[in-house]
Structure formats: C-alpha cells, structure tokens
Fold this sequence. Notes:
The protein is α/β, with parallel strands linked by helices. The chain has a domain at about 60-70 and about 85-95 and about 105-115. It is built from three helices and five strands, in the order βββαβαβα. Helix 1 runs parallel beside helix 2. It is globular, with a radius of gyration of 13 Å. The termini are far apart.
Amino acid sequence: MDSITIAIPSEMPGGLDAGVGQHFGHCDIYTLVDACDGKIVAVRTLENVPHQQGGCMAPVNHLAQNGVNVLIAGGMGMRPLMGFQQVGIKVYFGAGAPTVGQAVNALLAGALPAFSNEFTCGGGH
C-alpha cells in the first residue's frame, strides 16, 4: 500500500478546484491531498506561515511538520529546493496545471517531472 501526502500551493480557498499558486513560499494556503495506491482519499487545507519567519526554510519546515512527503510547485530557488531534499520531501514540477486537482491527477498518473535545477528561478520562491 503506497500512501503519500501531497502539498500544492493554492489560490484561496484551496481544494481540488482551486487554482495552483505559482510561488510556493508566498501562497496563502496549501491544499494537502492524501493519496493511497494512486487514488485520492482525503483533501484538506493548511495555511502557510509568514515568510519572514525563517525565510525560505519556514514553509519547508512547516510542510514537513505536517506530514507532507511530496510537493507540486511551479518554481522555486535553489535554497528551498535543497531544503525539501534535506527533509525528505520530493518536489515535482507542476507549472501549467490550471487546478490543484489536475496537478494531483497528473502526478498520480506519473506525468509530472521531478523538480531539478532547470526549473529553479534564481532566488524566486
């Protein structure tokens, strides 16, 4: 049984129909999706922490403390990407998905690439 918790930066109010937030560290809310064996089993939201508390690492640690092990993001700098790698959260590139639900379904179908240096934006997070 493969169980994961996926975080997606979201436009308010969050949820599967919400738009995907383009800046993971500056979004107001994350949609958290629990999936098991490739199927969505639960959806909830989690407010982001203020960015100035701990800089780029504040959202990384916040997501890790809430059981997240996968993040779908549109772009980020190298520092938070390295932070996610350090806490064991896999990051996938989901720019272009119009809704959280579509991004999650693409991930579950194996259609999203793992995040790499080519997707980082110098200092943008």
